[in-house]
Batch of 2 targets.
Target 1
Amino acid sequence: MSTKIKIDPITRIEGHLAIEAVIDDGEVKEAKSAGTLFRGFEIILKGRDPRDANRITQRICGVCPTSHATASALCLDEAFGLTDKIPDNAKLIRSLILGANFLQSHILHFYHLAALDYVDAVGAVGELSPFIPRYEGDYRVSGQANAELVNHYIKALDIRRKCQEMLSIFGGKMPHNVGIVPGGVTEKPTEDKITNFLWRLNEIRDFVDNIYIPDIISVAKAYGDYFTIGKGCQRLVAYGGFDLPDGRLFKPGVISEKLELEQFAGENITEDVKHSWYADSTSGKNPAQGQTKPQPDKKQAYSFLKSPRYKGRVCELGPLARMVSNYVQGDVKVKELVDSVLTQFDAGADVLFSVLGRHAARALEAKFVADAMADWLQALKPQEPTIVESEISENVEGAGLTEAPRGSVGHWISTKDKKIDRYQVITPTAWNASPKDDKDQPGAIEQAIIGTKVRDKDNPFELVRIVRAFDPCLACSVHLLDAGENELGVFRVV
Amino acid sequence: MATKKYPVVWLQGSGCTGCSVSVLNAVSPKIQNLLLDELVPGQQLNLIFHATIMAGQGEPVVEVLKDTEKNRKGGYILVVEGAVPTAENGIYGSIGEKDGRHLTIQQSVEDLGKNALLVIALGTCATFGGIPSARPNPTLCKGVKAIFNEKEIKTPVVNIPGCPVHPDWFVGTVSAVLFSGVDALELDDLARPKLFYGSLIHENCPRRADFDKGKFAEKLGDPGCLYKLGCKGHYTYADCPLRQWNNGLNWCVKAGSPCLGCVEPEFPDGTSPMYEKITFEELK
């Protein structure tokens, strides 16, 4: 028999999201993912000084504000004609700021958002808030190994805080750094700051190498079936990111399930709104021409997220996409890291499309970025400039495409009379948690849920583990609908 | 003697979770102390609802809200992070599902606010509306006090603005309440604790000597007072220059960025353009 289950809210993610799905014979037949908060940033930005976008868009997300600061700065650099003039020091410092936030976000995601689905905190510390209420029945690590993971949850609180402290050396403060601006950065890389940053980074790298990655491996050993759960759409997109004096750390690419590479081009992105609470007249546009007209009473709609698509196709973004993109483009370090984990599990690259594949890619990416950051610090030149002067130009356009911890992020601007005329943002979670598009193709998380076998409807671990592995950046709810009729009993998830 | 525990419900409205992330950055006490230990001798917080960190999800956590509202009247602290969207009956923001319907942020703030011992409006969105309430305020976002005034809710509200809030401002305010009671807390006319918002940025700014000498930065990255680059420190009440951010490592003006005035009710409309000089008179 079909059952409708609702989980609302899904916690331990950033923001507000809802997912609806249909269970029949123990298997998910249909799923809906819905963002339940609308703030209207693009509407608020219209008419403002373009430079203010760099500060305001960070407030989209307090977990990954630096990604928006970066995307916005790249977008304004282009609009003001500065892209080719950004000093090397500025590229390196922007990347160090962004990298520091990748580290805090990845560590926060695994230990404080995702881990409680796998680690038995109550078994280690007792029945305390915020560890209860919770799902029961599928905690597979116990005793000393479990206690150690819970200790690492606590230790990781210190380490993620230190990532933010490290960031503030060049960013001024976190959340919402002030250091990244159009034209470069405001801080100077003096020798004392470089050393201060380096020794903080060393402690964090030690944690990533000797605690975070080994913990991912031990969780993967206990939950091996999650290498086959949550496969998803199996098409990956990375815009590429971390602009350095000699190119980008992450390479742009579109990758198929057989790991074939296709060139990425921003003009192939469109956003559908058939199932989103926005006016239908705004559907199918490239973000450079995009519009945001809310219509919360629209009938077939179920989300405040639009549906971004690449050449009309559903895609997944995030650490998995980035690592695979570099992997297929011959990045030696990435290949070494990914292959070392695959060898441990005697598995082929196909297992990467899974819940555990996403967690592993994220942990390995933390190491890849952290190791690179040490090199960037060495490349800084204390006496040289970090910023070029910028002037607001009239009637110009710009695009800023980069990477956020949870996937690619893009900003698009056009100005009129030195004010913002149009500003559009596509967040990575808009891709991953998107509702169905105009062709009724389900979004990436929806596809990852569909087909999943749910063992216990009272405790649908499978579903929340799938959703959280994407590291969605909005607070969400998962609704599981009845497969057949509309009149089915609603099964409340406990 | 038994520890006195104060249940804390932490609601996230129209915001970015940045204030939660900032409170995770608390140094002494650390976040793990806030969550698990006595904050002051004999008294501790008991965080029973916080969407970003609690283990549970779905109906059981909505039950926690229902139970708190009904059975813990006058005994819990409500923390509100994020503004309250009020357009179209609050439909632009919901935090879960209750009795088969969207549980809007507005509804939860009102229901839980009514019966709380104390409400802490955390961050500029929750205090004054902040970024989501910026022109043209598409979702009609308001701060908690504005909602309480409209609905005649009498529960005391302490405002702790900031975009985001500094962790010390939150921890310090809660400590003051636990030590001395909410009535002893000295607030300014915007309901902010004077302990943290008692003096102008400009009074304690390390670039104050440059201002006095008329040495002004003409472009970002220059030494000198940042007044001509839009610094709002002459108008903004906060202790950032003394306390600094992220374990005392840095803060906006030290990093070469003008103060954005993020703790003031005029943020961001009245304090924009952010990188243009705005005189005190223009701000008023």
Target 2
Amino acid sequence: MKDGTYIQQPNRGLQVYAIVFLIVLYLPVLFIPLFSFNDSIYVRFPMQGFTFNWYVDLWTRDTVWAALKNSLTVGLWVSVISTGLGGVAARAITRYRMPGQSAIITLAMLPLIVPGVIFGVALLVLVSRLGIPLSLYTVGFGHLIICLPFAIATLLPRFEGFDRSMEEASADLGETGWWTFWRVTFPMVAPGIVASLLLTFTISFDEFIMTFFLSGTDTTLPIYIWTQLRFPREFPAVLALSTIILALSFVMVFVALWVGRLGVVSDQVQATIEGN
Amino acid sequence: MATTDAFISIRNVGKSYGAFRAIEDISIDIGHGEFFSLLGASGCGKTTLLRMLAGFESVSSGEIFIDGQPMSDVPPFQRPVNMVFQNYAIFPHLNVAQNIGYGLRKLKLPRAEQDRMIDEMLDLVQLTGYGKRRAHELSGGQRQRIALARALILKPKVLLLDEPLGALDKQLREQMQMELRRLQRAIGITFVFVTHDQEEALTLSDRIAVMSGGEVLQVDSPSRLYEAPQTRDVASFVGYVIVLDAQVAGRVNGQAQLDVQGIGLLDVPSAGTTLTEGDKVSVAIRPEKLTLHENVPSDDTVAMAGEVEMMTYLGERSHFHVRVPGCDVPIAISAQNADMQNPGAANTGRPVWLTWSKDALIVLER
């Protein structure tokens, strides 16, 4: 017999495939931070020497700071609103049996598969028809549509694992609906809420297509990067900026997954104990 | 059976979900300090009735009074009752002491007083020193005790228990039964206990309401329910029973004589007083009130002849199924194995004789 159980037999071919897959996926991305420290405006080997100049250059540009501020503002509002709406939706989906429930869930999740271009054009037509000027508000609205399904998908498992008798027990012990929410419901779904906030913020922060269609004079960081690509001299600064965004996004998604998983794991431990 | 000192008074209470009637016009009075059980198969409405007492389900018709107060407009968080949930509903994000002290926030007590009450409860449920543990570090029995302590710390007038022992294994369940009984005697408050386990209900309760299809079939003490069930359903739900059809053949000296299906004429002593000739009745026979003989009994008691169809060994006792000619169901007999009175009867096909004591037959109206 080989090592491992029937399900877990080692497979050398699959291991090689997985490694090649990861290299192909991440190697191009690794060139961005690599060349952001390169002392040359041209992205090519051999590299010219190590420099922080491109980062220092970024630091002194007001336009970068303005775009960053816009991105953060939109990201914060979008993450809070989409998580709030997502929480309400997740609770309704798990708590009530509604007619056409699966259709409602499918509709709520649709922005995941509808191309951003189509949503962007549609919203652009809509807001211009309504005479609403393009601004960060229209950008935020577009981001909300994209972020909502992610918020719902992140929060659904938390609410699905939520035992209704917990809230009943709180009511039975003398707490009203509001206090029950603060003392029982909220702490129990908190890991999901944190994960959803981080995830939706990251998505909003990185979003390009909707922003491209819906932004006015104020731009966000991804749009700023895109406009700078026309000027070859600015390219290393773009690389530096991309590196920063990349690093922050990675950290936030990892934290989001980690926090979300913490909750799920403790639930599983509990379920195992209860099962005994 | 309305008593004047009823502590919980359920008056013509009904519950409908749309066209479906979950509870049909139930009236029960429960006395102060009584251990009262709602017994029935799943879906009989017992949990719905309990949840109506707690305030989680509205009452469609009728009214529930607790300690003289109508409860219809009182929300769950203001009722003088507390509940132990079937899955215990221990808050996973709080430790044991925080769970037990959950309901104390509203009382606005000083911290030291709260801690003292929590410690007192931990002592009461024999979990002294467990205050800092997290809920997921506890066994099923311990979680059950915490659920009890959490409910009892608020000094409710009534404790509601929704199948609290269902998730425990047999040994722990028996231990917790003893403990529940001890607790209930110690605090002296009313317990309303929901269970589908008739043995558990018989062990624990002062009185039991047997429910089926949203109705109460009979409310009685455990021994009355077992010895004098009023209907066929109650007889077969509480304990094991064989039910045979019978007809009143005649009356002798104030006693009824029954023509029992497949068996023949039998005298029924006391129970048959209201019966008149020609009445169709059922006769229920408890297996443990029959005696198995390997030879024709010598004295003049009436004996039924048959042959052993099946024997099941159950440890402290054995069950025999005896096929009696003319009777289409085998008669069940339960015999204690203390004296191993019928070692040879394990051989199926053996001829045997059955005798019964005078109170073995329960006459039920059809």
